[in-house]
Amino acid sequence: MGGTVQIKCPNCGIYNTNADHCSNCGTLLSYKKRRELAHEAQEKKRTEREETRKQTSPSWIESGKKSENPLVRVGAHISSSIVIIVMAIGAFFAWLFTFLAA
Q: Biased composition, Basic and acidic residues: where in the chain (predicted)?
């Protein structure tokens, strides 16, 4: 199955045999590698957008934890603790129901 493969360069039109890059202009010829690079670029952009969003508009709990007002800081920490406790109880019940169903 490993025969020769000729790929026409989309940039300069030269046919290349068994090559990932054009021998004339250096353009990437492998469609698989192009898709991988495009996917990596999209993932990087998505990550950057997410980081920017987090920095520009943090949740009220996160902004409350950094507040100068001690009452707001305490309230944010208490709210965060309540969320964690509720999630832990929910996870316990999910585990319990799964365990009992099995």
A: 39-54
- 21 falls within a domain: no
Per-position pLDDT tens, the chain of length 102: 557 888 888 888 888 888 888 888 888 888 888 899 899 999 999 999 988 887 777 777 788 888 888 898 999 999 999 999 999 999 999 999 999 987
Write the DSSP string, the chain: -----EEE-TTT--EEES-SB-TTT--B--HHHHHHHHHHHHHHHHHHHHHHHHHHS--HHHHHHT-SSHHHHHHHHHHHHHHHHHHHHHHHHHHHHHHHH-
Q: In angstroms, rounded to a whole number, what is the distance separating the alpha carbons of residues 102 and 95?
A: 11
Q: How many domains does the chain have?
A: 1
Q: Is residue 47 part of a domain?
A: no
